[in-house]
Each structure stands twice: as structure tokens, then as C-alpha cells.
Backbone:
């Protein structure tokens, strides 16, 4: 069947809900900085800038009142953020530590939709995906392995920003489409038929989950930022930085600025995806 001029698989889920997807509060709600005070290990830039301001005013006041007004013009606007990427341990939806064993038994290329955790800031949601299929050899139609920066037995566990790089629609307007959800397939250097991806219902941007969330369709022109995952000897999973070359999270001048940090842990939450099998021609 077709929907809105785009191809759409038989039984395309939520196919009649394009308008509701477009009505989603595009990118704004979750990117508003938290009002809560910062937790451990965070730099409160607001306080730091206020101290800078007071220091400058004091010095300028001692040297002449006219300098104070001039100096104030060069004070950076107050903001909050972090000075560096924290190492954050991830926890599953049931509150247990997220381990490689747990991910590989609970989540796979089909069941990964939509697992979200915030990192490094509270208003920066990310997808946690295990791209390995439940059974069989990954071939692009059922799952993938050895993906860039993947962790786990098959290097198939990855994390990408859940805020679209076009105009900032957050999950669930941008959602993970498990293998075969829609008829549309793509191809890349590893897989001639790629049937799973991240797709944004707002305007149709699609991202290759097997290749650092590079662009498969626009209008977005930048990949989704990729969170670097790492494991310890017990298999616990941590977020620790961003892939070199990742753009800033949409809506942030710098991924480390724009809200308070998440602290030392972050938990997965499950969201109901908005799925729409419509892709730019
Ligand atoms: S905000 Fe995602 S395609 Fe426009």
C-alpha cells in the first residue's frame, strides 16, 4: 500500500498517524534544561559565570566605573553543563545493572525498540540497541554484527542519540525500526539488503544503525551522535564519551552544555515507538 505518496508495507503500523507524529512537540520539551540542582561531578556553569562576573565587576569597579559596563558585555550567558564526559553505569528497566549477558538474553535486533537512556546530560536521550538477531547469522535482513564501536560478544550493542539531527524531533517521533517493519530496504558496504534502521516520522530522515548512524535519507545531513559504550570484567556496561567525529547533540552547541549531567548512573526506559513506513523517494 502507499501512504502519502510513500511506500508502506502491508499492515504498516500506525500508518494513519502521520499527523499525530508531526504534532509531536518537536525537539523542545526534552531539551529544556532541568530545574533541579546539579548532582555529583558536575560543573554549575551558572554559578561559575556569576563568580566570574562578580570578580570582573570588582576589578573594574576599582579601576573606574565605566569599565564595569564594558566588561559585563563580555560575560558568557549563564548555562549549565559538564567539563568532560563522565563514565556512567547503565541499568536495565528492572533496576538491575545492565550487563552484556543481560542485553544479549533480553534484547536483539527485533526486540530493541525503543530503549532510551539519558547521557551525558539529562535532556540528551539515546537509543540502546543490540543489533544481533535472536537466531541465525546476521545478514542485514535480520540483524548485524561487528558494527563500529559495538560492544558485547558480537560487537552489536550500540547507542545513538535519540534526537533527530534535522529539526530535533526526539524519540518516539524518531524510532528504531526492527528488521522487516517496513518494506523499504537500503544497502551499504556490509549488507546489500538492510531492513532495519532509525527513522524519524517528522520529515523522513533515516539513519544506518550498522554504520555509526550515518544518513540513509534526508533531510538530515549529519549522523546521529554515537555514545561510546564500554564494559568491565564483569560485563557491566557503561557510557563513556562520544564517538570521535560525532556532531553535537541537536539543540546543543556542545554535547556537554545545556543541562545538568545525569550523575554516575543512567537507567533504560521503554517507549512506545511511532512507526511510519514513509520514506523520501
Ligand atoms: S526532525 Fe527528523 S526529519 Fe525533521
Residues:
Amino acid at each position: 500500500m502507499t501512504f502519502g505518496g510513500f511506500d508502506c508495507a502491508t499492515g504498516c503500523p500506525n500508518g494513519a498517524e502521520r499527523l499525530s507524529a508531526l504534532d509531536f512537540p518537536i525537539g523542545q520539551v526534552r531539551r529544556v534544561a532541568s530545574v533541579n540542582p546539579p548532582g555529583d561531578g558536575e560543573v554549575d556553569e551558572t554559578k561559575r559565570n556569576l563568580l566570574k562576573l562578580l570578580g570582573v565587576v570588582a576589578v573594574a569597579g576599582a579601576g573606574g566605573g565605566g569599565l564595569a559596563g564594558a566588561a559585563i558585555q563580555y560575560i558568557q550567558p549563564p548555562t549549565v553543563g559538564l567539563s568532560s564526559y563522565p563514565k556512567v553505569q547503565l541499568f536495565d528497566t528492572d533496576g538491575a545493572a545492565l550487563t552484556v549477558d543481560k542485553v544479549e538474553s533480553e534484547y536483539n535486533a527485533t526486540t530493541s525498540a525503543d530503549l532510551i537512556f539519558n547521557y551525558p546530560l539529562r535532556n540528551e536521550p539515546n537509543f540502546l540497541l543490540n543489533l544481533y538477531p535472536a537466531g541465525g547469522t546476521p545478514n542485514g535482513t535480520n540483524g548485524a554484527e561487528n558494527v563500529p564501536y559495538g560492544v558485547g560478544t558480537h560487537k552489536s550493542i550500540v547507542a545513538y542519540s535519540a534526537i533527530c539531527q534535522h529539526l530535533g524531533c526526539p524519540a518516539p517521533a524518531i524510532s528504531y525500526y526492527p528488521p522487516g517493519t517496513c518494506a523499504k530496504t537500503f544497502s551499504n558496504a556490509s549488507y546489500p539488503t538492510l531492513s532495519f534502521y532509525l527513522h524519524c516520522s517528522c520529515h523522513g530522515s533515516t539513519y544506518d544503525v550498522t554504520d555509526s548512524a550515518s544518513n540513509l535519507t534526508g533531510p538530515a545531513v549529519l549522523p546521529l551522535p554515537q555514545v561510546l559504550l564500554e564494559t568491565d570484567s564483569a560485563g557491566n556496561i557503561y557510557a563513556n564519551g562520544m564517538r570521535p567525529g560525532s556532531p553535537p547533540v541537536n539543540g546543543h552547541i556542545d554535547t556537554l552544555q545545556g543541562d545538568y549531567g545525569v550523575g554516575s548512573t543512567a537507567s533504560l526506559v521503554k517507549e512506545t515507538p511511532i512507526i511510519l513506513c514513509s520514506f523520501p523517494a
